Amino acid sequence: xxxxxxxxxxxxxxxxxxxxxxxxxxxxxxxxxxxxxxxxxxxxxxxxxxxxxxxxxxxxxxxxxxxxxxxxxxxxxxxxxxxxxxxxxxxxxxxxxxxxxxxxxxxxxxxxxxxxxxxxxxxxxxxxxxxxxxxxxxxxxxxxxxxxxxxxxxxxxxxxxxxxxxxxxxxxxxxxxxxxxxxxxxxxxxxxxxxxxxxxxxxxxxxxxxxxxxxxxxxxxxxxxxxxxxxxxxxxxxxxxxxxxxxxxxxxxxxxxxxxxxxxxxxxxxxxxxxxxxxxxxxxxxxxxxxxxxxxxxxxxxxxxxxxxxxxxxxxxxxxxxxxxxxxxxxxxxxxxxxx
Amino acid sequence: xxxxxxxxxxxxxxxxxxxxxxxxxxxxxxxxxxxxxxxxxxxxxxxxxxxxxxxxxxxxxxxxxxxxxxxxxxxxxxxxxxxxxxxxxxxxxxxxxxxxxxxxxxxxxxxxxxxxxxxxxxxxxxxxxxxxxxxxxxxxxxxxxxxxxxxxxxxxxxxxxxxxxxxxxxxxxxxxxxxxxxxxxxxxxxxxxxxxxxxxxxxxxxxxxxxxxxxxxxxxxxxxxxxxxxxxxxxxxxxxxxxxxxxxxxxxxxxxxxxxxxxxxxxxxxxxxxxxxxxxxxxxxxxxxxxxxxxxxxxxxxxxxxxxxxxxxxxxxxxxxxxxxxxxxxxxxxxxxxxx
Lengths: 340, 340
Hints:
The structure is a homodimer.
Chain A: E1 3-9, H1 14-28, H2 43-51, H3 54-61, E2 65-70, H4 72-75, H5 82-102, E3 107-112, H6 125-133, E4 139-142, H7 162-171, E5 175-177, H8 189-207, H9 210-213, E6 219-221, H10 232-241, H11 247-250, E7 255-258, H12 264-273, E8 279-280, E9 292-293, E10 298-299, H13 303-308, H14 314-328, H15 330-339
Parallel strand pairs in A: 1-2, 2-3, 3-4, 4-5, 5-6, 6-7, 7-8
Antiparallel strand pairs in A: 9-10
Helix pairs in contact in A: 2-5, 6-7, 14-15
């Protein structure tokens, strides 16, 4: 089977966005703050939003199951306070849960967290627990910069984040390190902020020694690891200068890269420098780049085509498409085994 | 000949750093502020600092001439006010000028600017003019984030920067877009901030339409263009979504990438996706990564070896090593012709 480890619910019914806009208005005008119960989206609406979009494309392109989380750019942890983020995360996660119930063979949830700038990450634990225990989610998305482009949180290696990591280890779930919308005009959201965050996360992990404290912790760095594979020589060299072990030991037992790189040469590079055990198939569709590549006649984000073209053994491709995901997301593996 | 378009004076005599430390102390204690005349570095000291380091390595590795600018991480535009930056830039540029006089066949200068957070870039024009007219410098380094990792300047496409661009066009000099030290603990200087800045700059240029206003303006994006070549499909796709022309038209008449990518697979990718006319040889030595790559037995930053190994025609390699630099830095070309 083919598992796409990186999909967001970017096609939720318009009612969700309308409710969110009312919630944002309610931050400055509490009388306008909507109640959660005012958001009503039927199962039929959910079904339609998925069948016409993600599921249709999964079937056309040949993937089977997507690890599905709320729309990343809509997390917008910088908006409002913890209460605002908490209500919003709860709503968005519940929608992904409902999608996973409607299409249990095709979608499994990953949680967004109710992060909020300057708020102790411990505050995210109840939502995380609910998503794992009640919703059967198999992962979380962790935003290393809830400020949305001002980067005023401590590095991922700081004890600040440990309450999240402790729960990740307890529940045996990985985190995808994924920022949200940039509210900094210097950074285009999907063209700069996302990629910079991936690069930044990798370097923070090289500088630190987080996996000594959490040998079981697992991170997925999306968008092909940002700039890291392209500059793998730089990172190997910096690790050496910083007296860290070689990256294979220092990072690669715990850090994985997805294949959201939207052209064949990029995927070829990744497969050349990153061990096959650390590469997870993903497309992030319908995501950052929706168009058709005029150079190939196929969608930029049809990443399966690039992997199909790699000069790898079929057993290695099977790792990228399925085996690695089942290892990195053990709760997914257990669920798939129980469905057999 | 082989021109390295990206070298910094990272090996200046210790007296420079001592003077700078006193200058920084003088920001809070004006009585301690040193006079410029208190910095004394002899020609012999300059010669030794270059002959034992950059020049030795250039000769060992086979490059002839380096476009030489002050140490990037020491620019630290976020420290002090404009007066502090102005004095510091003036000192650092003068040292590069003296190096270029001592070794006229091997070094030609590129200016650091006296940028300062929140100060109008127009204030940099006198130093820029002096470096071009009196020192014979052929380029500038432009810092898109003088705050050192807080990213509170307008994008490079904003009119904010136009006073610099007007002088660049007038003097026919390119700018390398190069940040300095990160004072944001989220960003490692050479492992995250440098690479993120390159990626950010490329995306700002894609979003905007700067080269319509300045068709002659030329930027060199260092460190192999950050993440841009690895994600070239993403950038082509984003340009398409943003209704921009294809990148070849929109960017590549004006934007060039250097080869500071410290492993062969990265350079191979670059040569595959970036037209050969837009690639400039560079090493940034002695720079970010000084060690020997245990996988090759050669220095990470000996980038000439990677280009030598590329499957390119020798006329294309000549472009990367020399021809493109003479086109992008016309003042260098004129100088070389006059030296013949």
